[in-house]
Amino acid sequence: MHPLVATPEPRSTPWDRTSLPLERLSEEERRVLAYASAIGKEFDFALLRSATGLSEEPLAELLEHLVHQGLLREHPGGERFSFVQEDVRMRLYREMTESRVRVLHRKIGDAYEQLYPDPPAEVLPELGRHYFLGRVHDRSYRYNRRSASLAREALAPEIAAHHLERARADLKELPGDHREDEAGLLLELGELYSLLNEDLKADRLYVEALELVPPQKTVLRALILLARADVARNQAQGDRGRELCADSLRLLEKEGHRRGLARVHRLLGRIASLEGNTRSAIEEGERSLELLDPKDDAREIARCYVDLGNAFSASAEPSSISKAVEYYRNALQMVEKLGDWHEASRACNNLAVAVGTNDPKEGVAWLEKGRTFAERAHDRRMVGWTLFNAVEFRLTLGQLDEAERDNREARRVLERLQDPIALQQIAMNDGLLAIRRGRFGEAEAAFQRSLRLAEDMGYPPQISEMHLRLALLYDAWGDPERAALELQRAEGLNVDAYAVSLVKAHRELREKLHLDGGDGESGPSEPDERLPATGDGGGAGPEH
What we know:
Blueprint: H1 27-39, E1 42-44, H2 45-52, H3 56-68, E2 72-74, E3 80-83, H4 86-95, H5 98-115, H6 124-133, H7 137-153, H8 157-173, H9 179-195, H10 199-212, H11 218-234, H12 238-255, H13 258-274, H14 278-291, H15 298-313, H16 320-338, H17 341-356, H18 360-376, H19 380-388, H20 390-396, H21 400-417, H22 420-436, H23 440-457, H24 460-476, H25 480-491, H26 500-516
């Protein structure tokens, strides 16, 4: 409706809210209200007529009387009504026995089917709801499954999960053996909870699914194992993730399942990338691409592009960053066309990390765009990643207050999700912010905390980076012995390369410690103003 067009107020009659007139109603009026309360706060005349079986004129007279009583409100046009007070509707609904509620919902579902033989998208959830509450399990299962698919396509994973939970309950009530169907449903439901950043809940569903899937359904079993491997990766359990990938790979190779094999190699590449094995990450990503069909697998190809961008961004090769940026841009172009806002957010986040070293302002701009995509995808995890990755860029731009705000908000979002990789990076940011405030002790404590989190995950790149940041901190504070020790620890992990933002600082520190011969005065002094750990344009890292 055009906002300048005045809308008439729905017609109703005021009444004393302290004295409900329900007891003064006729049996037929109470029957009509019972159906209306089961439909919802608002209802259509045609639907109520079909459900109750009343003729048009008698129903219109009953509704008119209820409007005059102040119980209902008539909307313009006379085809739609609503309850004046929600507590009245709830009182009517709760007073009914379970058997009557079941009958009413079933009849309302039948009325919907009669009115909409080919139900549109907005009616499917109502059919699912009424047949679920009416315990018509076969129809409820069918409509809730369809509603879940529509909700997922509309980037509403919470709604999709709600419908699948109902479908699962229905499936248990249907006669026959439905173990394979339930296993497939649990896989889909787990993927939704994973999208909602509830990995542990998703993994419990995958375990249940593995217990249900028949032995001969090897592809389904392999895909469930792969889903568990993805959870393991998200929880920084690289060894466990590789074991599950290997189990999945064996099954998929027997079946020659091309797309499934591509997904396994892609996930192995993501695990390798997190662990700092750049060469393996690139090889696995390229192997995944070789298995995918450009015509049918555009979404998977775009995701591979993002992963390959991550691998190249961590490479020590001079041309690696330009290759990474090319992969990110190609991925972003593809996922925007597909409407995959989660992957678009990931591409923007990682592109920002790649370009922001040389241009922190552009890095912040890409992160803000990525956050917009993450919000469209209802992806709280990626919202948090785009926030904490902006901290170093903002420090380089002199935006200290904004940097502290972003890190604080990222912690608020990601602590709830128990994202270990992100929380380690946020702790590191605490150290960078403390340095900028001139608080050496706080910075050291934050870096040590971030180091412990990195060691708990067991990922060499993050561990090595934290030793290097501690080395830079001690050097700037005039403690070359401790700086040399931390540098030795960092280099002892043999990671392929440091983040671009640290390459120059690492080289200069090695040269300085060698030239100084470790003879500098030990113990705290005034910090060196050139301290690179305050952020020289490098974001915390890509979302792998």
